[in-house]
Amino acid sequence: MAQRSASNHHRPIRSFVRRAGRLTPSQQRALDELWPEFGVDFEAKALDFRALFGRTANVVLEVGFGNGESLVQQAAEHPEQDYIGIEVHDPGIGHCLIAAREAQITNLKLISHDAIDVLEMQIPAGALQRINIYFPDPWPKKRHHKRRILQAPFLALCASRLAPGGALHIATDWQNYAEHIDEAFRRLDLFVCVERREHDGEQPLERPMTKFERRGLRKGHRIWDWKFAKAC
Ligand SMILES: C[S@@+](CC[C@H](N)C(=O)[O-])C[C@H]1O[C@@H](n2cnc3c(N)ncnc32)[C@H](O)[C@@H]1O
Predict the structure, then answer these.
(1) Are strands 108-111 and 128-134 parallel, antiparallel or unpaired?
(2) Ligand 1 atom with the shortest distance to the CA of 69
(3) What is the pTM of this model?
(4) Residue 50's domain is classified under what CATH number?
(5) Domain range for residue 167?
């Protein structure tokens, strides 16, 4: 097969930069020992949720779970639902694995890969009950706004992966991103806004507080929360 030349090689704009984060010894141990139990390797092939979780249940997917504490808390509080978390930051994944083991949960799987590829290739159409995107990287500089994950094509992809009646939950502590989100959904007819809250941390919308939310609140930021239902 002909090699593609460097000049026409297409590099996608990613919503993250892979940081060479330092893993603590316990995070490294968790990745080595617990990945076989909780981890799902990325493959360009649709997952079979029934085979993955050993049952049929509503599946909730979280994009960019950070250190995973709020993800594990949700999975522990809702044993009747199955959870998939996607993250690219190894120390956060290690932290999440440790929390998952401590919580003794069996309804959580983690994928370490770009969430856009995962949604496109691994998540079947109409398979999710809910998608959570909490405090996505705000990319505050104007020249970086194109890196924000919440853009129209990604939102259309989320809509296609949600079941009828499914919901997309979003939260941010960044005013300019909140304005961008309001505008993006105004232009889109794939979702209906069920609820929008603007608050100082006291009214999270059907979710626990997250690490980045606490950090934002310490800096005096406000919080914006949305629940969007997939349009019929
Ligand atoms: C600002 S942090 C918020 C973490 C967590 N949700 C919280 O509220 O504490 C955003 C996270 O999204 C992850 N992320 C960004 N783009 C991603 C992508 N395309 N796929 C998977 N994870 C992504 C980053 O690695 C980062 O950990």
Answers:
(1) unpaired
(2) 9
(3) 0.95
(4) 3.40.50.150
(5) 39-230
